């Protein structure tokens, strides 16, 4: 008996060629150069933003540029009538927490939209709990509802390997996987799926689910950040929130990171953000205690070495 064909209600399957054609005014000249496509789509602005906003990740940025180049050339081929099957764009992002996977997925959705490969360019980020039900008949409607929301954009499934639990015969994750597989194949012109998680666990997941592995065209590994890169990230975060370190605090932050990076549950940029949030709390407590002093803008925006050194990372080190 054949498996049911899942088509998401309200979703219209469109080809990249149709979208590209729809985006072009009737009287507009077809793009003739890579520069034409870049100017029309403004996709280079997204790539430049990726370079500017994300520290490090050179191999990731290059791979995103390579994918963008493939899609730009595909647009030129369409303009010349060289029609071919749309390239498979489902992806897998692997790496430790806090390495920028969700941020890059958001930029990827924007690139795909600007080049006409998805209609909306939005990102729907989910985990197992959003897809898998707890009783018979619950999983299919949950999964279909998520897919309906994601249509026309990108579905980002974090820690995707939790969908598969072979040790539990009563688990319904397999049903969600089957629906995903069919939609990834039959409606791939209107939805891009990005799976994400730890590399070793994703490798095991793909070995156990060859149908999923065969549908993923692009595997991108996100490396951990170095201490220098984490310091740059801290500087960007402070600047965005109108804070700064006072003289000498950069060295304390470096010391903090060198200690924290070897501890359990270190999460790269996420851990940097948490450290700065706690430093802001200590700064606020310190200023709160000086209730009769007039506080300047500099007082209110400065994180001191004292604010960082109160961390348990220093207290628990030997």
Say how many strands there are: 7
Walk across the major sheet and give the strand order. 2-3-4-1-5
Cα separation of the termini: 65 Å
As a percent range, the share of helical residues equals 40-55%
Catalogue the unreliable spans. Answer: 12-27
For the largest beta-sheet, the strand count, sense and barrel status come to:
5 strands, parallel
Computed over alpha carbons, the radius of gyration is 23 Å
Q: Which structural class should the secondary elements be placed in?
A: alpha/beta
Total helix count?
A: 16
Q: What is the approximate shape?
A: globular
Give the mean pLDDT: 88
Give the SSE order as H and E letters: HHHHEHEHHEHEHHEHEHHHEHH
Instruction: Please state roughly what percent of the residues sit in beta strands, choosing from under 5%, 5-15%, 15-25%, 25-35%, 35-45% or over 45%.
Output: 5-15%
Structural overview:
This protein has 16 helices and 7 strands. The chain has helices at residues 16-23, 34-41, 43-53, 58-79, 101-114, 128-131, 139-150, 173-186, 199-208, 210-215, 227-240, 249-260, 269-288, 297-301, 305-309, 312-315, and strands spanning 91-95, 123-126, 154-158, 192-197, 218-222, 244-245, 302-303. The chain has a 5-stranded parallel beta sheet, sandwiched between helices. A two-stranded parallel sheet has the order 6-7. Helix 8 (173-186) links the parallel strand 3 (154-158) and strand 4 (192-197). Helix 3 (43-53) runs antiparallel to helix 5 (101-114) and helix 7 runs parallel beside helix 8 (173-186).
């Amino acid at each position: 008996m054949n498996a049911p064909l899942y088509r998401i209600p309200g979703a219209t399957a469109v080809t990249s060629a149709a979208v590209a054609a729809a985006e072009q005014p009737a009287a507009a000249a077809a793009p003739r150069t890579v520069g034409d496509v870049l100017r029309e789509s403004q996709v280079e602005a997204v790539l430049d933003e990726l370079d500017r906003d994300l520290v490090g990740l050179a191999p990731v940025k290059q791979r995103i540029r390579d994918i963008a180049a493939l899609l730009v050339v595909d647009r030129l081929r369409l303009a010349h009538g060289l029609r071919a099957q749309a390239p498979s764009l489902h992806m897998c992002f692997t790496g430790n927490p806090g390495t920028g996977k969700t941020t890059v997925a958001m930029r990827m959705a924007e690139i795909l939209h600007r080049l006409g490969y998805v209609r909306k360019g939005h990102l729907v980020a989910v985990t197992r709990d959003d897809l898998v039900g707890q009783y018979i008949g619950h999983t299919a409607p949950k999964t279909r509802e998520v897919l309906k929301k994601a249509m026309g954009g990108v579905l980002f499934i974090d820690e995707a390997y939790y969908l598969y639990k072979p040790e539990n015969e009563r688990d319904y994750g397999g049903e969600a996987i089957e629906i995903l597989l069919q939609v990834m194949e039959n409606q791939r012109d209107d939805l891009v799926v990005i799976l994400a998680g730890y590399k070793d666990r994703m490798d095991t997941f793909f070995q156990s689910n060859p149908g999923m592995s065969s549908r993923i065209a692009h595997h991108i590994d996100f490396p951990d950040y170095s201490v220098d890169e984490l310091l740059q990230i801290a500087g960007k975060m402070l600047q965005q929130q109108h804070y700064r370190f006072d003289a000498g605090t950069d060295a304390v932050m470096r010391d903090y990171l060198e200690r924290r990076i070897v501890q359990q549950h270190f999460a790269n940029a996420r851990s940097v953000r948490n450290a700065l949030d706690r430093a802001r709390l200590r700064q606020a407590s310190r200023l709160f205690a000086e209730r009769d002093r007039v506080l300047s803008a500099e007082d209110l925006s400065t994180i001191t070495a004292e604010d960082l050194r109160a961390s348990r990372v220093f207290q628990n080190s030997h």
